[in-house]
Amino acid sequence: MDKICPICGAKSSEKPFVETFCIECRPSNIKLPKKIMIERCNRCGNIKLKGGWVPFSDETVNDFVSSKCKGEFESATYNWRKETAYFMVGTKDALVRIEKEIPLEFKKSICTTCSRRAGGYFEGIIQLRGKKGKIKYYARFLKKQLSKTTFIAKEEDLKEGIDLYVGESKPAISLLRDMNLKPKITRKLHGQKAGKRLYRTTFLLRF
Ligand SMILES: [Zn+2]
Ligand SMILES: [Zn+2]
Fold first, then answer.
1. Residues surrounding ion ligand 1 at CB below 5 Å
2. What are the residue ranges of helices labelled H in 17-131?
């Protein structure tokens, strides 16, 4: 005899059943977040996930939200534009797609990099000296690369060369190392913040 789903009225001859319910109506044990809130930088659009700022992309947001869903399902995907999660549940021969709404809200914020930039903050100065053509070439290259990992706070054209003020020293150190350039490095203590010593690093490059 056919079972009849008490929720939708489907018959067991029409659809797979899990005990009393059809597979689409069976009580699922999927645990969803009620709502997701993600901080998003007003200026650059980066988002804050797990305590750090990362570039925004559909995939990053979708993966983050679907990773917050727990329970018995074969797979979970999320579409943030539709604020809907999709789960494949059931057994290998009878998979059913279930949709659940998870509201997503972007909260306006400002990321560390943008707030530092706005405050005139910088940690390092790359001084390019020597042949004019080479200085120009390297300045352009360094600016392009460094604006992917940090920011250029200021650029100064001087008689003796070009000074690039960089937001953070670490990305500058690793870029110069990757480029096999060997700058003369000097560090100066320029203050303290929350008990931490703040340094400014000068990287002198001669061509
Ligand atoms: Zn049903
Ligand atoms: Zn930002």
1. 5, 7-8, 10, 22, 25
2. 58-66, 112-118
